[in-house]
Structures are given as structure tokens and as C-alpha cells.
Here is the input.
Amino acid sequence: MSLNCIICNSENMVKIQDRLRDSNIHKVFICNNCGQVQINPIPTIDEDKKYYSNDSQAKAVFNEVNMDIMKAKSSIDVKRRYRMFKDKINKDMKLLEIGCGYGFFVEYLKNEGYDIDGFEISNVRREYGTKTLGCKIYDINLLSEDSLNFHKEEYDVIFMFHVLEHISEPEKFLRNVKKILKKEGTLIIEVPNLDDHMLERSEKYRDFYFQRAHITYFDNKTLARLLSKSGYSDIEFEGVQRYNLYNALNWLNKGQPILEYSVPREIDWIEKYYTAKLIKDMECDTLVAYCKINREE
Here is the structure.
């Protein structure tokens, strides 16, 4: 059976990884035509629906999903994202987070007085967000045309945080996002960065990096190519470094992450230099893309 690139449909694919951290069945390939990296076999929509409905991704990381702990861990990213994007939103706008998970970002903006909805296909996560947090979260799968009927050209700003890499048909998905984004609206996407410097420096980190939940892996070039192909323009990128220097050093020394360590004030300047350098060189662990609908398409 031939393997085609998800983005350009080329069959010129080369294997670069024999297994994933949580699957011996899947392998990682790079497209020699466009540079896109993806896993194979690609999960079907039904397989993904079952996977996320059962909260399998969280269960693969945590032995027990404790919601108080999950919310506390998420608060750093929630507040960081609000600081990054608050100059792009106002309280007269209609906002949406696609793949909102448990609803922590939706709840935060709701409590700040914003009008925001969420889309989430995981039954477990959606139920927590609606019943416990009191958020408006809908069971909408943007790979299904039928699900878009009530939301066309409704939203001024749409957020997608670590969602796009989970999508088996990213161009179709992004084209459907266009249908619910207002003509002058903004799409903000955050994904892991394939140019993350640790991938070249730690074999253990690289083995951990590729996982079943992530179907595609992007750098700024491949993500820009996909967005342009999907009908977006005015594409801009910003880098984010979510994990600190101690985490990188622990990967290099012990081959595992250390996520709970706070950098001492005395050497905070080293941490700031490390972060600034990675962002400047776009070798940070996370990419943020801003884009608009291409009106000429």
C-alpha cells in the first residue's frame, strides 16, 4: 500500500523513526517533496473519535486524571496565551476555541467578560467543561460538513492550541474553519515546533517527542505552506518556549523531563537568555501562527 503526504500528496516519503513513544505500530515519515513530517498509518476519523472520547491521550501521560492537578498545570499556558493575545480581542467580538479540551481557556476568558464558545469532540472533556465549568462547548467535528450549519461566518477570532497536529486531513479541516470565521477575522494556531533544538541534541527526547496523538509535525515553513494552500494569507509567526532550561538539561543528563522545577532567581538571567535565543532563532519548542482568510482565492 502506497503512503502519500498529507499535504502535497507526494509518494516520495522516507521513514525517519521506527516507532512512537506510545505505539510500536506507527512510524514517522518525512516527505521529500515538501518537507512535511507525519505518522503512518494515519488514524481514521472514527478511530480518533473513539481515542479522544475515552480521553486516551491524557491517560497515556497520567496514571490518574486528577482535574484539580490538570487545571493547575494548564493555568500557566492559559494565562500566557491570554497575555499574548489580549491585544487581538475585545469584548464585542465573538470568540471560539477549537479543540478546547476541558475548557480551561474558555472558562478564563468567560470569567474575564468575553463571549467565547468551545468545540470539543471528547465526551469526557466536553462534559467537564459544560457541567463543571459552565462553558458553552459544542460537539463539533470540523472534518464533518454537516456540523457547520449553525456557525457559518460567526467568529471574529478563532483559537486552535495544539490541535492541528492531531488532524488527519488538515487542509480540509482548515478550509472548514474558514467557513465559520468572519471575512476579516483572525485565526490563531499554536503547534509544537519541529525545529525544536532538543530534537537534534537528545535521542531520548526525540524518541519521546513522536506520539500517537500527533499525526503531523510542523516547522514554520511547512505550516505556512499548509495555511497558504488552505486559503489563508497574511501569515505571521511567533515563537514560544514553554519548557525551561532545567528541563533541557535533565533530558541531556538523564534522558527524561523535569517539569516541576522553578528556576532560582539567582540564575534567572540564564533562563531568560536561553528562552530569548531559542525564540530569536525559531528553535523554540512551540510555534504560534496568525493568519487571515485569503480574499483573492
In short: The mean pLDDT is 91. The first helix runs from residue 45 to 53.
